[in-house]
Amino acid sequence: MTKKTALPLIAAALFSLATASPAAEMLIENLDGPVTTNEITAFKAFMQTQTVRNDNNHNNWVYGNGGKDIEALGMVYEVSHDREILDQMIRFADTALAGRNDATTGRLIWTGKRELCWPNSDTNSATAAYSGSENGDVISHIAYCAELILKPPALWTAKVGLGDSHGYGATYKERALTYVREMDRSVDTFVLPWFVSAANTNQYRWPDTPQYIFNKGGTPIPWNQQTMLSGGFLRLAECHELLKDDPVRAKKFYAIIGANLDWFLADLHPYERDGHTVYDWGYSAGRKSEDVPHGGYDIWGLCRAFESGRFGVPPATMTNFANTLYYVVYDSTNNAFHMRVDGKDANKSARKALAGSWMLLAKYHPDSDLYNLVTKANRADAASRPLENAFILWLKNQHAHLATGAKSL
After folding, report:
1. Which residues lie below 8 Å from residue 115, measured CB to CB, with a gap of 6+?
2. Cα 223 to the chain's mean position, in Å?
3. 233 by DSSP, 3-state: which?
4. Helices assigned H by DSSP within 4-107
5. Which of the 8 DSSP states describes residue 15?
6. Is residue 189 packed enough to be buried (19+ CB in 10 Å), middle (13-18) or exposed (0-12)?
7. What is the pLDDT of residues 327-386, one digit of tens each?
8. Burial of 135 by CB count in 10 Å (0-12 exposed, 13-18 middle, 19+ buried)?
C-alpha cells in the first residue's frame, strides 16, 4: 500500500491532531511542578462546552474531534481523578456507542452484512459500504472509558452523574460492562474475522478478498493503523483482567498485540546519530522514511505497549525512539520538527509543533531537555486543542512525579 493509494481517512493530517474551538481557552500555568487546580478547572470548563457528533463521518470517532476528545478526557481524568471529567468522557463514549452501525437496521457493509462497526462516510457516498481497520481506534477509545471506570472498585456502585439516556447502565460499573460487552461484539464479529490473519501468526493484514472495497490482497496493514487495532485489543484485555471474567479472551488479545508489536520492532532500521542510537522505519512493513504525522500513531501504540509492561519492550528501545525525536526529527538550528522520521521534509515544510503523541517520548529521555522542548513547542496549541492540552498535563504530572515525588491532584 503506497501513500498515493492510502485511504483518505487514514492519510489525513495527524500532525496537529486537533482543531481550534471557540470555547474559552484552556490553561497551562507552568511547565514545572505538579498539575494545578486552575489547569484542571480550565480544561473541565472547556470540555463541558464541546459538542458531540453522533456520526463517524470523516473519522470523527477515530482521530477526529470525537475520538481525540475521549482520549483527552481520559488522560486528564488519570491526572485529576475528577469525576465530572469522567462523566464528560462517558458523554462522549455513550454517543460513540449509540452511533455504531445497527445490526438490524444499519447499512450493509462490504462484507454483505450490517456489521457492528462505524462507517466513516455518508450513506449516499461512493464509499458508504466501507469500514475497516480504523474501527480498532473507536473500540480503543470506548474501552479506555470502561477501563478507567473499572480501576477503582469504590466507584462501581455509584450512579453516573449525567444519567443514563441511552439505557447503558445507571451505575458506573453497569456502564463499563455495557462498553466492554459491546466492544467485544464488534471485535468478535468484524475485527477478528477480517483484520487479524491467523494464517500469518495473527498479523494485521488487509482482508484478502475482492469483497473488500480497497482490496490489497492480504498485504500488511500500515503501522499507524496497527496501533488502532492493538489499542482496542489492549484496553479490552485490561478490562477483562480488572473484571477477572474472561482470562482466555485477555490472553488471546495480548498474544495478538505481541505478535504485531514484535513485527514492528523487527522492521526498525537502527543507526547512529551524534553518538546515539536512533531509528528509521516506514509507513508499513519493509519500508523506510515514515512521515511524522503517521509516525505519531506508531509512537502512541508503542508507548501504550511499553507502559503496560506486558510485551518485553526493552527500556533501551524507548530511549532510542526518544533519541530519534531529539536528534533527528528536531532541527535545533531552525527550532522546528522535520516531517519525516529520518530528518527530511520531502516536499513539505518543517513545523514548529508536533502531534502530542510524540511528546510521550520525553519520559524516556535521560534528562529534561526533551520534555522542555516538546512542551514549549506545543504550549500555544494547548490553549485551544484538548488533546494537546491533555498530553502536556499528563506528561507534566509524570515529570513532576519523577523529578520530585510530587503526586497528582
Report:
1. 101, 103, 106, 109, 131, 189, 190
2. 13
3. helix
4. 8-11, 37-48, 65-80, 83-98
5. S
6. middle
7. 999 999 999 999 999 999 988 999 999 999 999 999 999 999 999 999 999 999 999 999
8. buried
**Cα–Cα–Cα angle for 399, 401, 404, rounded to 5 degrees:** 100
Distance (Å, rounded) from C-alpha 390 to C-alpha 71?
8
Q: Which residues contact 47 (CB under 8 A, 6 or more apart)?
A: 69, 72, 73, 85, 88, 386
Residue type present at position 36: T
Calpha distance 89→93 (Å, rounded): 6
pTM over 0.85? The answer is yes
In a domain, 170, yes or no: yes
> Which structural domain, as residue segments, surrounds residue 159?
99-255
Is position 139 within any domain? Answer: yes
In a domain, 264, yes or no: no
- Cell (9 digits) for 357: 503523541
How many domains does the chain fold into?
Answer: 1
Q: What digits encode the pLDDT tens for the residues 292-324? A: 999 999 999 999 999 999 999 999 999 999 999
Q: Contact at 8 Å (CB) between 21 and 50?
A: yes
Residues 6+ apart with CB under 8 A from 175: 90, 94, 146, 149, 160, 164, 168, 169
